[in-house]
Amino acid sequence: MERMLESAEKLYGDYRWGRYDVIVLPPSFPFGGMENPRLTFATPTILAGDRSLTALVAHELAHSWSGNLVTNATWNDFWLNEGFTVYFENRICEAVYGEDYAHMLQLLGRQDLKGVINKLEAKGHHADTHLRLHLEGRDPDEGMTDIAYEKGFALLQLIEEKAGRETFDAFLRTYFDEHAFKSMTTDGFVAYLDDRLLKPNSIDLDVAEWIDGAGLPANAIEPQSDSFMKVEAEVGKWGKGTAAVQLNTQGWTTFHWMHFLRNLPADLRKEQLTDLDKAFGFTASGNAEVLSAWLEVCIRNNYDPAYDRLDQFLTTVGRRKFLMPLYTELNKSEKGRVLAQSIYAAARPNYHSVSVRTFDEMLAWKDNRPPASF
Q1: Is 327 a catalytic residue?
Q2: How far apart (Å, rounded) are the C-alpha atoms in residues 342 and 28?
Q3: What is the 3-state composition of the chain as percent helix, strand, coil, each rounded to the nearest 5?
Q4: Which of 35, 60, 94, 150 is catalytic?
Q5: Quick check: is 17 in a domain?
Q6: Do 201 and 258 lie in a common domain?
Q7: Which of 12, 50, 87, 216 is at a distance of 20 to 30 A from 243, taking alpha carbons?
Q8: Are residue 108 and residue 234 in the same domain, yes or no?
Q9: What is the tens place of the pLDDT at every residue in 297-308?
Q10: In the predicted model, is pLDDT for residue 202 greater than 70?
Q11: Domain span at 357
């Protein structure tokens, strides 16, 4: 954490809050982290035993500049907090862990962003894929998607490429200094960007397309990762019949395993899942990111040997990022819905109210009881 802080200060100026601490909260905490000044709240799911999930700490630390030092004026300007913080997080991780790590982080984030865009567009919610949100009369929680985080990051990454890293870093440092302890609107930032960076450097960029346009613009930089290309090669070998134990997975990190699991074929036989589990011990994993991705695969393919672990995970973990995809996947089949109701009945008393509101609606839970059909 000290190295992260030193890297952050080198990039964008002194840490201005005196002291920085992290407190790990009980399992019911529904978020990854919360960037309170001086004291970050963190989910216990970042404790993987091998320090492999510390990017979350880099993210919350970065909020000490983007979000806490310069704050979004309204929830419609939420991307000014989170898009900047994802960009800053990536730069901290690059400085501490190297370019390869940062590139993997970017690619996983882009996968998440495309998934969210597809879901919102399928529902006809095109306006919710704009960076500038429209939350009048709505719960601000509805805007807390990967749009603000990852589309915001993609815009800043594009600006960096057009301006050059050195020029963009100088711009951001000045931005934080000149607006320290103040609020910022989207229009205010766009005007500042145009006046201080784009016009002086003759940079041609349609910022409005990013701010008020739907989806991901065509000029977004597509993340590349040599490490992930090697992972995909191993997935291909396995798909053609190579036993899992014979795959070249030496030195793989959490990010490699997440990409591996995300790129498995959609439909798998029990024998294939058994082969993977026996070789890599996914069901017994203590890494929440890896385990959650694996359990999604297991639900999709009705892999009964993982269901006890699924029950345990959903009952002892309250982070909504992990709960949402698992309950969503369960809710797609009759067997899954019955299992979801059973698990939720036991887990619900230990969930945070933020999670309870989400899953009461998803699972049609009324008056503390499941629907009559169950």
Answers
A1: no
A2: 19
A3: 60, 5, 35
A4: 60
A5: yes
A6: no
A7: 50
A8: no
A9: 999 999 999 999
A10: yes
A11: 226-362
